[in-house]
């Protein structure tokens, strides 16, 4: 719809390696939105990202998420999968206001932006 050249979209199930996923060339950036919704899915998400990072150790996952519980954390799983996470303040790109793109988020919700990559610069 945005006339972006060479943009490939692949549907996937977190934690499962499909033929489409295997056929992907190395990626530079993986964009995701609010994928960290249910804690029982967190490891499947990171497992899939880990697989893609082995194709290109410099790849980064950029994702937004809404904080739903202070008890939900990625820290132990990031450590387990040798990944790191950097939080990007929404105000750093002027996205901390109500009614962005006709949406009520972030509004009074806590929405965060994060970038996940390998903990080391390369394997």
Automatic annotation (TrEMBL):
Pfam families: Methyltransf_16 (PF10294). Gene3D superfamilies: Vaccinia Virus protein VP39. Keywords: Methyltransferase, S-adenosyl-L-methionine, Transferase. One of its GO terms (molecular function) is methyltransferase activity. GO terms for biological process: methylation. It comes from Mandrillus leucophaeus. InterPro entries: Methyltransf_16, SAM-dependent_MTases_sf. The lineage of its organism: Eukaryota, Metazoa, Chordata, Craniata, Vertebrata. This is Methyltransferase 23, arginine. One of its GO terms (cellular component) is protein-containing complex.
């Amino acid at each position: 719809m945005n006339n972006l050249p060479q943009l490939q979209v692949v549907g996937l199930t977190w934690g499962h390696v499909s033929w489409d996923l295997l056929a992907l060339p190395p990626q530079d950036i993986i964009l995701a939105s609010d994928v960290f919704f249910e804690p029982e899915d967190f490891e499947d998400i990171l497992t899939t990202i880990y697989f893609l990072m082995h194709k290109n150790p410099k790849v980064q996952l950029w994702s937004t998420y809404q904080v739903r519980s202070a008890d939900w954390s990625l820290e132990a799983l990031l450590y387990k999968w040798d990944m790191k996470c950097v939080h990007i303040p929404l105000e750093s790109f002027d996205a901390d206001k109500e009614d962005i793109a006709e949406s009520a988020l972030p509004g009074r919700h806590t929405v965060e932006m994060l970038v996940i990559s390998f903990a080391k610069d390369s394997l």
